[in-house]
Amino acid sequence: MNIYLIGFMGSGKSTVGKILAEKLNMQFIDLDEEIERRENKTIPEIFKEKGEKYFRNLEKNILKEFAKKDRLVIATGGGVGADEGNLKIMKNSGRVIWLNVSLEEVFKRCEGDTNRPLLNQPIENIKKLYENRKKLYSKADISINVDSKNPENIANEILKEL
Ligand code: S3P
User: Given CB 3.0 to 4.6 Å as the disulfide criterion, which of 6, 37, 49, 133 pairs with 82?
Assistant: First the structure.
């Protein structure tokens, strides 16, 4: 069984995932890092040179690959848990945990961030993206509110819910 962390950009998936993996003695995988390593490009470069559709395909294929393995804690990119097909893949191979962060907190945490192409657009579009994605994120097995909590406490909260 794997553990998948889903949620909006800046929800803390990677930070919490690393702590959780250590506590559970499971291997940690950061899906975005895996994509960058394989493509030998940063995410903004992939978006710019190959486009979002190409990135989403990569994301799905790598997710499928890891879904065949066992005992992984996987921090997904913010778009992974916002896709019905991906949610199915994750639910069939483990537990899906949504780190639910408010949009206000996202803006606070990601101020000045240039590594996330989807935050580099008008606020109205980001708000729409956030609202639409919430509907899918909420299909996770476990939901955790993460605003004003530290990663260690969030990981402990997840442990109690597993
Ligand atoms: C994305 C989130 C990013 C990264 C890419 C696209 C998204 O990951 O995968 O920029 O669609 O929300 P983080 O959620 O780790 O920022």
Answer: 133
Has this prediction a pTM greater than 0.80? Answer: yes
Count of domains forming the chain: 1
Domain that holds residue 9: 2-151
- Choosing from 5, 8, 9 the residue with most ligand 1 atoms within 8 A of its CB, the one to mutate for a pocket test is 9
ipTM of predicted assembly, 2 dp: 0.98
Tell me if 42 sits within 8 A of 133, measured CB to CB.
Answer: no
CA distance 63 to 58: 8
CB-count exposure of residue 114 (10 Å: 0-12, 13-18, 19+) = exposed
- Mutate-to-test residue for ligand 1 from 13, 32, 34, 74, highest number of ligand atoms within 8 A of CB: 32
Q: Ligand 1: list residues with CB < 6 Å.
A: 9, 13, 32, 43, 77-79, 116-118
